[in-house]
Design brief:
alpha/beta; six-stranded parallel sheet; 14 helices; 349 residues
Length: 349
Amino acid sequence: MGSSLKPTIRDVAEQAGVSLATVSYVLSGRNGGSTRISEPTKERVLQAAQALGYVANHAARGMRRGRTDTVAVVVENLDSPWNRSLAEAAYRVLPGHGYRVVILLGQEAWRNFMLSGGADGAILGFSTGSAEEQRTIADLAARGAAQVVISETLEPRGFDVVSMGEGGGIAEAAGYLAGRHRRIGVIHRAPAETGPGGDRLELFRAALQHHGVELDPALVRSSGGSWRKTYTEAIDLLTRAEPPTAVFATADLDALCVSVAADRLGIKVPQELEIIGVGNSEIGQEAEPVLSTVGPEPIQEDVVRLLLSRLENRPQKQQEEEGNPAGRHVPAPWKLHFRGTTVRQDGGA
């Protein structure tokens, strides 16, 4: 090994018996292009790096190349099944293309990190609405940062927008429940998730009114984002003298807590209590019974690959000169997925 206390790329090359260029290419994690390196050679380089304890200096490499090879996935919290699935999709896809993934929690964190040049691109996994957020997105786009933004209001200008369109799915859930029930409970999160038509509770309330059903205020509860509080509120709702015969929860995790509470109380789901959540999360699909839910088809990996395509087609100015759009709008409308917690299930009524 060389004189450095820390092993260098030259040490790895000597250990593996290959060129510096080969080691650099393999350890960068990049695939494709005109360079072709055999699998045995790649394995020899990786084994040498592991044996020597070599750790790539991403910051120094980024300074030399004018890029960080880092992608930020920005979420408000990791309690949300959607957020976790988005992060997992990023870790599943991006490292194979040479990108590190960092998870940023909260809106302040992503602004400071990205504006300081911390990553080449970002996925904003929450709906952006404030003027400050929009200015930051525009500023980053002008700097050439690749971005995919979840938003129902933003126009794609130098970044891509995925529009969830959850209102249609919530209206579908309201229509289904209004046709079968009059005592409908709701558990919603606070602060509520917002969209152009209002938060999920208000979207649901308005859709019920369209069908001639009014929500009883006594059957509307807030979880505060806590599954423990959701469970307590669900027990209280279901032990009332006149309990709801259906519950709509604005998040899948809350809906699952209602299902657990019903099971504890001996209430049969869906025969005696129908439950619908929001999110179409993996955790809901793995539950027993499988959760009926409002949400898109699983699109987290599609969102990650949308960002990857933008990263691999920089610079933006060159995209525009070649006639490619400065930004793409990808609709992802939500619908009601009938599963095990509603009487109606996929394939029949």
